[in-house]
Write a structure and sequence with these properties.
By secondary structure, the chain is an alpha/beta fold. Helix content is 37%, strand content 17%.
């Protein structure tokens, strides 16, 4: 266990497992328990998601695991969670783990964080983005959603009723974040307003994947937008592959199901192994 000092002076715990080429995983290495675990199961999530990914890779790789999502929720950065600062935080984790070269895998907003990292450093030996397209990403839509979330944190409104017993949808979610927690993501997406992912050119090996059914429709309470994740990958697959990306579409999977270890590891592990022809470099 080591600690990394982040851009705001806060520290984050970093766990290192296994040996071999380094892979940075911004995941919680501790399985959820009790009510939290039950709530995650209702959403179809693996309560041990982070641990499962670590265990699925650490026999062949040196896995550097750190719960960045949990950290920013417990130590919000409402005015400073900018794309540049997120990238600096990820490099700080790599430095704390003694990793000069490393691969990175992130899902959803942690995937776009990896892209921001990749355009700011030459230390990446591989980049894997899951659950967020590397080309024509929904940045404007996510700014609308995060702004609406912040406004709901400031002035709560009642959620829509659940559609049916045992079924969950985005419209029925109650806002549980504080003003500071939600505002930091507004800050992040405001910092991406002028970012054009179509102009990005990278040299490191890179993979992007998403579920074909990863399409989230938010009602007016949440900004009234569609956040399309799978659509851009399907539409722009040829362009991405021409730019040197490997692309995987997970047929029929939505945002939650495509991030589960049972679906991620069969893509992530073989890809990392292929990019590691001998032993020391990806």
């Amino acid at each position: 266990m080591v600690e990394a000092k982040l851009h705001d002076g806060a520290t984050i715990e970093v766990e290192v497992h296994g040996s071999g080429p380094t892979v940075l995983l911004p995941v919680d290495p501790r399985p959820a328990e009790g009510e939290q675990a039950e709530e995650q199961r209702k959403w179809g999530m693996d309560p041990a998601l982070g641990r499962s990914l670590i265990d699925g890779l650490s026999d062949a790789f040196r896995v550097v695991a750190f719960d960045y999502q949990g950290h920013v929720m417990s130590t919000p950065k409402p005015d400073t969670l900018t794309p540049a600062n997120v990238a600096a935080d990820l490099l700080a984790v790599a430095d704390a783990a003694g990793a000069e070269r490393f691969a990175y895998y992130g899902y959803s907003w942690l995937a776009l964080s990896g892209l921001q990292l990749a355009i700011r450093t030459d230390r990446l030996s591989g980049l894997v983005m899951g659950g967020f397209p590397a080309y024509d990403g929904p940045y404007a839509e996510m700014l609308r959603v995060t702004t609406a979330t912040y406004e709901l944190a400031v002035n709560p409104k009642p959620a829509a009723p659940k559609s049916a017993a045992g079924e969950y949808d985005w419209s029925s979610v109650e806002v549980s974040t504080t003003e500071e927690q939600s505002r930091q993501f507004v800050t992040l997406y405001q910092g991406l307003t002028d970012f054009d992912d179509r102009a990005v050119r990278l040299s490191c090996p890179r993979l992007c994947f998403a579920g074909s059914a990863d399409e989230i429709d938010y009602d007016e309470r949440w900004g009234g937008v569609r956040v399309s994740i799978g659509g851009p990958l399907i539409r722009h697959r040829a362009e991405l592959e021409a730019l040197g990306w490997d692309v995987q579409i997970l047929d029929g999977l939505d945002h939650m199901s495509a991030m589960q270890p049972a679906n991620v590891l069969p893509i992530l592990r073989p890809w990392l192994l292929r990019r590691n022809p001998s032993s020391n470099t990806l």
